[in-house]
Amino acid sequence: MKFRAIRDNIGRFAVGLMCSALGVSVSGYYAWRNRPPSARTRANDQLLEQIREAHQRSRGTYGSPRITHELRAQGHRVGENRVAGLMRTT
Predict the structure, then answer these.
(1) Which residues pair with 12 in a beta bridge?
(2) Which of 20, 40, 50, 62 would be a feasible disulfide site paired with 58, CB 3.0-4.6 Å?
């Protein structure tokens, strides 16, 4: 979360200053920035696309319980809390 805040404020503040203020190392930030996305992040991105499609098909009326049910019917192994969390990010 701290590294994302740094990335989002590049150009407004110096990287070293932000790292110091947030208590992280500059090298840690650059290592995070250059690291490929984790398997969980990639899976969440794919799942989020499925959630958006299901939500769009329902004309924006389905919440996390119905979307979870629909995803499970399609063969996805997901929990309602995960779906709800991903829905909150958009």
Answers:
(1) none
(2) 62
Q: What is the pTM of this model?
A: 0.71
Q: How far apart are CA 70 and CA 76, in angstroms?
A: 9
Q: Is 59 left (phi over 0), alpha (psi -120 to 50) or beta?
A: left
Burial class (CB in 10 A: 0-12, 13-18, 19+), 10: exposed
- Token digits for 8? 């989002």
Instruction: Answer for the pair 31, 62: CB distance below 8 angstroms, yes or no.
Output: no
- Tens of pLDDT, residue by residue over 29-76, are 999 999 999 999 999 999 999 999 999 999 999 999 999 999 999 999
Alpha-carbon distance 7 to 14, whole Å?
11
